[in-house]
Amino acid sequence: MVVKLPSEISEILKKFNEAGYEAYAVGGCVRDLLRGVEPEDWDVTTGAKPEEIQKIFPDSVYTNAFGTVIVKTGNERPALTRRRGRPELKIIEVTTFRIEKKYSDKRHPDEVAFADKLEDDLGRRDFTINAMASDGEKIIDPFGGQNDLKNKLIKTVGSPEDRFNEDALRMLRAPRFAVQLGFDIEEKTAEAIKTNAGWLQAIAKERIRDEFVKIINSERPTEGVELLRELGLLRYIIPELLEGAGVGQNKHHIFSVWDHNLRSLDYAAKKKYDTEVRIAALLHDVAKPRTKHGEGPDSTFYGHDAVGARMAIGILNRLRFPKHQTEKIADLVRYHLFYYNVGEVTEASIRRLVRKVGPENVEDLLKVRICDRIGSGVPKAEPYKLRHLRYLIEKVSRDPISVKMLAINGDILMAGLALAPGHKIGYILNVLLEDVLNDPKKNKKEFLIERARELNQKSQEELKKMAEEAKQKREEVQMKIETVSKKKYWVT
Q1: Which of 110-114, 260-264, 355-359, 409-413 has the highest mean pLDDT?
Q2: Tens digits of per-residue pLDDT, 93-103?
Q3: Transmembrane ranges (predicted)?
Q4: Which domains are present in the chain?
């Protein structure tokens, strides 16, 4: 089968061939080409040793112990930027055929040895769909990857136990590929994961986090989390979530805590919300099993928002999430229960909420609340009162139209015009504000001082009348803004 390789890759393979070496595109890029998907990354494998690769590509870089040389393609555009719908390649990882020997830490090989044959190199890879190579003319597929691709199966190369014993992270990569590609995990591969799930404890938390985030950011994250539970892996990632399985709720919910959390995550994925919102949706009720009192429709979960925020911090710190992400997600969990009823909550309380969660995070907090509603079985994601809340948040977050917006203040006026404190200062500032509202470009100190000198020549009564007219116009502008804002959120 012929697959079309980018010209940059074909040129690299050609240079190897001209120097007398085999070379192939390999791994995920071949898998994606066969799926009709544009690869995001390209890897090349060759029979040439690292020092020989560097002779062919003098501008290459070799700084590791695994036989990988970084080769430039000659394209100086940033890697993976897009032009005419396809990636523009800048650097390619070129690896010598190799075999990997004993894995003492279940992640890194104790020794890497160069191999003479492509088949030996493909035999060390994780899954059959990632163990294919191509020279642009033919597909080399000694382990049946094309057949598994056709049947949508994730299957290890050779013995599943051997592959997972070599690198336990592969047990997490299997469900990640399954949800990203919409595939099933082959039966023996799945059984080996269930049997050896505890090996995941040997893996660095950062690597577990990265795979978990890829699952969360996939189009089917709920399937991924459910698959992690079925395979016995979730207990080594976020065991706290498992506490919600089978835990009933009250009259406000029709699903168990576990199902509710997954349904909330599912809605976040359907709406293509970002990572923080998805994780917050998954964790927002994580503390309910620990705070539950009573059974049946009147059971309570007092304080589960605060307890949940502390649990979220523990979970995310354990998985080595960056501090800023941990703090944001914890805040989204902490304040997801904010109370709001039209006519009952004051603008001051809305300001306090905005201040607590941060203006930049308010929209994400509302998204988590919507996910919570949908996850509870409520058919309407955004009822009137939530739309009204959006309107009020925008209102309290918007700077009021006032003289504070001006580039000068009363002190500057008094100093510049040698004026004494009094009503005249206020009148002048209000007239200046009217000028700036008509033309925002005029909000410059020099212009305003000069304009103030002109106004200072008028009598106090004349200035008072001008200021009152300016104030009336300002109120009209404010009312227009309010009308537009209300229409935006369909509120009255």
Answers
A1: 260-264
A2: 999 998 876 55
A3: none
A4: 7-145 (3.30.460.10), 283-397 (no CATH), 403-489 (no CATH)
